[in-house]
Amino acid sequence: GMPSAVRIFEVGPRDGLQNESTVVDVQDKVAFIRRLRRAGLSAIEVTSFVHPRWVPQLADAEEVIAALAADDHDGVTMPVLVPNERGLDRARTAGVRHIGVFASATETFAQRNLNRSLDGQFDMIIPTVRAALSEGMDVRGYVSMCFGDPWEGAVPLSQVVDAGMRLLDAGISELSLGDTIGVGTPGHVTALLAAFADAGADLGRIALHFHDTYGQALSNVQAGLRAGVTTFDASAGGLGGCPYALSATGNLATEDLVWMLDGLGIRHGVDLGALVETSVWMASRLGRPAPSRVVAALDGG
Ligand code: HMG
Ligand code: MG
């Protein structure tokens, strides 16, 4: 059966903005994050401590974290993405306690996104996980290209499970399976989750991260719900994409997810009206409408 409640993991300020060529200033990023918090989101990935040359949009990570430091976080977690120990150092210095590491399920994307081989990326990531855990930080892990890869095509389930289990075995609290380019379909989601269960993974620690390139994201969420997944990543307004993944477009829009969950009677804690206003405001900063269908339907409606 379906769960009665889910946790929405908001990635708009990070995955949503990282691909935007218009640089959003620190004040607007901070306003975006505060509005998301007021809209009821309880986990908001706020920025990345990656190399600033690789993702110029998020080169102001220290400033964003510093501006948020004095806020009353009110139980809201605000993790950041960290690729390596240098990123962990920066996050630690900024006072961050929740991080996310990210691996690729494919050779080509490991090279393009992390400048490492499929195997070699773990020599960078696993020591980062261990160091963060030894300091009592919470560590989430992502695997990208879990369904298809723009250069390699379909990705074997066993390759995804292998990458994911390496992160789970290193002690991450949650594994987010990313459909980076949005090619997945529900049967594939079901098969991938079954493969993780067969490998001994606790599905309670698995989250799903969909991009809506082919319009399959909500159907894929339903497949996840049926398999017992209760954490879903989404991006306000449907912003997003990865600058290093050919044909990666917007993330599943948080508003679209909320609309479907409301219809299913599944609790999520988000105020849809406040969220739509936030996405409309951010769209005005970026100079074009939010990709979300629900935002389009409700804005001015
Ligand atoms: P590299 O060039 O191999 O780095 O890049 P390196 O380890 O050789 O270091 C080179 C220099 O960079 C050194 O400086 C380091 O100190 C510096 P130097 O000694 O030459 O002066 N450096 C750093 N500086 C600041 N912050 C750092 C850092 N690390 C090294 N963290 C690296 C390797 C991982 C750094 C690079 O490939 C990188 O930053 N990649 C990030 C790419 C990225 O952010 N992609 C988007 C996020 S993933 C995603 O979107 C997918 C997801 O949404 C899920 C899904 O949809 O699938 C999560
Ligand atoms: Mg993503």
Give an overview of the whole structure.
The structure is a single chain. The chain starts with 6 loop residues before the first strand and ends with a helix. By secondary structure, it is α/β, with parallel strands linked by helices. Helix 2 (26-38) crosses helix 3 (61-68) and helix 2 (26-38) packs antiparallel against helix 11. The protein has a nine-stranded parallel sheet. The radius of gyration is 18 Å and the shape is globular. The protein has helices at residues 12-16, 26-38, 61-68, 85-93, 107-114, 121-134, 157-169, 186-198, 217-227, 254-264, 272-286, 293-298, and strands spanning 7-10, 43-44, 47-48, 80-81, 98-104, 138-144, 148-149, 153-154, 174-179, 206-210, 231-234. The mean pLDDT is 96. Strand 4 (80-81), helix 4 (85-93) and strand 5 (98-104) form a beta-alpha-beta unit. It is built from twelve helices and eleven strands. The longest helix has 15 residues, at 272-286. Bound molecules: 3-hydroxy-3-methylglutaryl-coenzyme A and magnesium ion. The site of 3-hydroxy-3-methylglutaryl-coenzyme A has 25 residues, from helix 4, helix 5 and strand 6. GO terms for molecular function: hydroxymethylglutaryl-CoA lyase activity; metal ion binding. Residues 6-276 form the Pyruvate carboxyltransferase domain. Keywords: Lyase, Metal-binding.
The overall pLDDT, averaged over residues, is 96
Strand order of the largest sheet: 2-1-11-10-9-6-5-4-3
Order of helices and strands: EHHEEHEHEHHEEEHEHEHEHHH
**What is the 3D shape?**
globular
Helical proportion, percent range: 40-55%
User: What ligand species are in this complex?
Assistant: 3-hydroxy-3-methylglutaryl-coenzyme A, magnesium ion
Uncertain segments are none
What distance lies between the first and last C-alpha atoms, to the nearest angstrom?
34 Å
Please indicate the percent range of residues in DSSP E strands (runs of 2 or more).
5-15%
Number of helices: 12
Keywords: Lyase, Metal-binding
Protein name: Hydroxymethylglutaryl-CoA lyase
Domain Pyruvate carboxyltransferase: 6-276
GO molecular function: hydroxymethylglutaryl-CoA lyase activity; metal ion binding
